[in-house]
Fold this protein.
Amino acid sequence: MKLIYKIFFIILFLYSCKTRITPVAQPTSNIQLNINDKTDKQIEDLISPYTLGMAAAMNVIIGHSPAFVEKKKPSSALGNFMADAVMESAIKVYPLSTICILNYGGIRSTLDSGEITVGDIFQIMPFENEIAILKLNTTYIDSLQNFIRIKGGEPISDNINSLKQIALSGQDYFYLVTTDYMANGGDNYSFLTRASERINTNIKIRDALIEYVKIHQHITFDTKIREL
């Protein structure tokens, strides 16, 4: 699918440049390059199989949504679903993962009730962000709580009690599941760059969502407010 996208966008770029003036190293004239209707048809014939293939891939039905959901603060059913999906994927890679926290701004669309397609997930998460797992000292729990409170909330997985138990038990570290964007200090999460260990899973957030929907099929949304 990656190859299809690359070819499609390259050809699309070329196709959009129908007429251009190309300066040459001759002071007397310019050479005008005209792409005629025949060339247009050739380009259309070339990209048609890829556009059809992309449309077919995006329209694949992978599950069902019982309701329309959108992002809200301090939390939302859509954000809860995304955080739970990413957490489930991360645990398969690293079972000691404690909790998942995503960024509200990374949710780019709503999800309608009814059939869920691959294209729906691409609209929700169009970015190439990947799952990162950070080993953080438990002294950062307070920083995380305060920062999320200031931001008005973030998508959090249903593992809040696990984090609280770690804080009360006197353990030294916990493992935060998040995006590589946030792990790099994005959205002002600069303190996450001070993690003592980082696991790059190479799993795209989008792929984790798609896999979660495929596995669970009929999604049950958790509408309760999740706060650290």
User: Anything to note?
Assistant: Residues 37-58 form the longest helix (22 residues). Confidence is low (pLDDT under 50) at residues 3-26.
